[in-house]
Amino acid sequence: MDKSSQSGCSGTFSGIDxxxxxxxxxxxxxxxxxxxxxxxxxxxxxxxxxxxxxxDMAERYMHSPKAEDRAKGFQDLVNYLTSFIEQRxxxxxEDLVSLILKGQILGKPLTDEELAGCVILVFLAGLDTVAAxxxxxxxxxxxxxxxxxxxxxxxxRIPNVIEELIRVSGVAVIxxxxxxxxxxxxxxxxxxxxITFVTPLAxxxxxxxxxxxxxxxxxxxxxHMAFGWGPHHCIGSHLARVEIRTFLEEWTKRIPKFSVRxxxxxxxxxxxxxxxxxxxxxxxxxxxxx
Length: 290
Description:
By secondary structure, the protein is mainly α. The protein has helices spanning 3-12, 14-19, 27-32, 35-43, 51-63, 67-90, 96-101, 112-124, 127-143, 145-153, 158-167, 237-254, and strands spanning 24-26, 104-105, 108-109, 174-177, 182-184, 187-189, 194-197, 258-260, 268-269, 275-276, 280-283. It has 12 helices and 11 strands.
């Protein structure tokens, strides 16, 4: 691993380390939104110093109320990532963008448009979903200290409980459009109607999961559709699992006990993903060696 890669690894947990001595943080903005960007910069061997710049671009594109602000945020992001692709053309390495540059479709090299699309997809795919899922999982553990203590006392359990925590923390929904007028089970659907399938609720179906509202760390199988299913299964699901596991391993190592602020008002934004707007956390100001 070269020096820049090492810098990226340390930067992954800089958000945690920057707030640990304060005894409090606003988890969504200070940790959750930054963490996936840190991971992306590690994958592409990019400068961690650009993290806040990318977070700002993504926030403007995905959450600005005005269409022109969203368009400007997206264009800034495209310009940044296109410039990054050009850098890797000149100085390829073993990072993800360099590998994408070597990609082919049906034996043909990717076009410039396809290359840009792939890199932008890699960057955007897990931003809101991973950040939201991390926030819901962290909120649950903050409000169930007995469950959190199990992970602090035995970090080796973390990989095995990830699926159970994901089961009750799904955030992404599938959207489709109706192509033709149709009646289904007495319900009329008209051409161009928009349909949203709330697939995360499958993990709370008592026909498939016994006592589904109970988070059971000893559950053998955690059936859910948090990442979709079949041909619509999320291509980034494996990375999301790794990110959540890595976060929990580092968070439990640094913060042995924490909770949600008593005066906290937590709201959630809807849309194609359920995204918590804030999560104020507090803990004792005790530094635990990393």
